[in-house]
Amino acid sequence: MKQDAAWSSQASSSRRSSSSQGGRLSQRVRDQVVEVYLTLAATASSALGGYMVAERVAAVRRHELAAAAAAAGLALALFLVPATAQNVGRRRGLLWGLGAAAGAVVHSGVGPLVRYGRVGVVQTALGLTVALFSSFAAAVMASSRPQAIYAIGAAAFAISSLGWLTLLGALFPSAAMLDLSMLLGLAVPCISVAVHTQNMLDHATQGHDLDPVTYAVGFFGDLMEIFIRLMALLNNSDSARRRAQQDDGDDGEDWQRRRRTGGGGKRRFFPQSAPPGTGL
Asked: Transmembrane stretches, by residue range (predicted)?
């Protein structure tokens, strides 16, 4: 009986260790994780607000370098303020200001795409950014710690191995190598989301209090990098599609022009082959 009890206890502990990490968090830690993501959501909202201000106010658009300088100053101030419980409110305000300044800076690259009619590229990039971030964070939450560590290590090894192919792209430039390098660049912040999520869970399971601002800063950087790389990838794909459509249209116009002119530069108003005996 004692052996059966010991075996059942060992089996239950093994099941707990192989269960999802998110399911083994205490209510206190879950509340702290929710606070991290709420801080991140507020920062992303402030970035969207900064973008809208830059879109509506011409003075902000004309002084985008000032917005970049403000973002750098806020980031420095956020780094210098100690991460203590008393400074959470102050650091959160600095983070939200940093998000607004970052949104104004991003407008310098996104705004022209919107004005040139590529709103679909921006909307698709936003949706894919949220989907990629949520999926990688949820995958770490739903897996056990060994599974997450092995998956992160395997993905990082694969990315570093394929990264050598970008050297071939520099020596032999091609559209395929450019797409591969851009996809590898997109994979890096996605893996960073998984790493930051795992670090947050490890810190929480060790009994430490989570600083919402510190982890929100890391996640916000991952979000911005995913969005920017998606914008570059989608814009490149959209430009290639537009060039292909334009080339097809030019080929069609050339064919119609050759048909009207009979293959030469002089326009002819009679068929290419006239009936015999007409003298044409």
From this structure: 36-53, 65-83, 95-114, 121-142, 148-168, 215-234
